[in-house]
Amino acid sequence: MIDTRRVDDLAWRVMRWSMVLLCVSLVLATIRVPYAIEAPGPVSDTLASRGEGSAAQRVVDVEGHRTYPTSGHLYFTTVTVQGGPEEHITLWEWVLGKVDRDAKVVPEQTVFGTGRSEEEIQQLNAAEMQGSQKSAIAVALRSTGEDVPQDNVVASIAGDLPADGRLELRDEVTAVDGVATEHVSDVVSAISDREPGEDVRLTVRRKGAEREITLRTADLGGGRAGVGVGLEPLFDYPYEVRIDAGEVGGPSAGTMFALAVRDLVTPGEMTGGRSVAGTGTIDDSGQVGPIGGIRQKMIGARDAGAQYFLAPTDNCDEVAGHVPDGLSVLEVDDFDAAVDAVEGAAKGEVGDLPSCGTR
């Protein structure tokens, strides 16, 4: 005999739990939360070409100077970001991101900032990519002995800060407190090297004439003194170098672009046929700066077959304890260190080089 009451009770329990699961699934798929998911993105070889056949275009292209054969790979790495200020991820996507060991769920503002639309973010990323490429080219050419003059000009002025109404766009800043400045970082550090409220004397060239302008510095946050200007380096390159990064934005590929330019315009194969990936911003003085999503970038590099990974010094605390198997992570703080790391990797001799993974 079949106990129909027990069968009916079991069917009712299955139906009830099915309804509960359906309701939970609907809630998870409907509710949106202000978080973003960072996951490993694709890598691009800066020594390769983009496209196929006659339409192929080198990622780094040089005109007006001899180039040399290269081998191996110099990959720049990316992070795929899911979510954004105009379309938050669902609670279900948040759960999936939390259980994915290769992904990282972060508050939305840590990736996109606050108060910006997606269009503004895209424009900012494109501008940062362009600026990164320009500095990368200058740093690479200078490393080969080329003279690359630059002018540091005012590119933006914040309202209601000391520079507003006193400086003008395209003013060239040539000195701070009478001391000549060469790089943008020289200007920034010279201005910030004082207490907010103290005066700073800027020498600027405007429409061919030099003048001195004294400004009372303000607190830009955290006790950092500034005057409220954004500076842009304008370079005079000895020959033409073009970089095609595809649809990627942001400044984090700068170091790898600079390495590719140097490799192309100098004799010998810098990588020795090995696969080297990396990340890091680069400024006009050759300093390598930190980036976001480094753990996901290391995973992307490992999956692409890279043997070595260049990581900015300021990211090393995030790297330690999270290095994927089979990947050696080398610490770099400036372009000279990045060159040393690649050349060491080419020889398989990296034991004496700084390594984030040993911290």
Question: How would you explain this protein's 3D organization?
Answer:
This protein has 359 residues and is of the alpha+beta class. The chain has 9 helices and 24 strands. The protein has helices at residues 4-30, 91-99, 108-112, 118-143, 184-192, 254-265, 294-303, 316-319, 335-347, and strands spanning 32-33, 35-40, 44-45, 49-50, 57-58, 60-63, 73-76, 79-82, 89-90, 104-107, 150-157, 172-176, 179-180, 199-206, 209-216, 218-219, 225-226, 229-235, 240-243, 275-278, 281-282, 288-289, 308-312, 328-332. The strands form 9 sheets. Strands 3-7-20-23-24 form a 5-stranded mixed beta sheet, sandwiched between helices. It starts with a helix and ends in a 12-residue tail after the last helix. The model has no long low-confidence stretch (mean pLDDT 89).
What is the number of E strands?
A: 24
State the low-pLDDT regions, or none. none
Profile the largest sheet.
5 strands, mixed
Task: State the end-to-end distance.
Answer: 70 Å
Classify the helix fraction into a percent range. 25-40%
**Shape assignment:** globular
Oligomerization status of the protein chains: single chain
Mean pLDDT: 89
Percentage beta strand: 25-35%
Structural class: alpha+beta
Number of helical elements: 9
Radius of gyration: 25 Å
Order of strands across the biggest sheet? 3-7-20-23-24
Indicate the topology.
Elements: H1 4-30, E1 32-33, E2 35-40, E3 44-45, E4 49-50, E5 57-58, E6 60-63, E7 73-76, E8 79-82, E9 89-90, H2 91-99, E10 104-107, H3 108-112, H4 118-143, E11 150-157, E12 172-176, E13 179-180, H5 184-192, E14 199-206, E15 209-216, E16 218-219, E17 225-226, E18 229-235, E19 240-243, H6 254-265, E20 275-278, E21 281-282, E22 288-289, H7 294-303, E23 308-312, H8 316-319, E24 328-332, H9 335-347
Parallel strand pairs: 7-20, 20-23, 23-24
Antiparallel strand pairs: 1-9, 2-8, 2-10, 3-7, 4-5, 6-19, 11-18, 12-13, 12-14, 14-15, 16-17, 21-22
Helix pairs in contact: 4-6
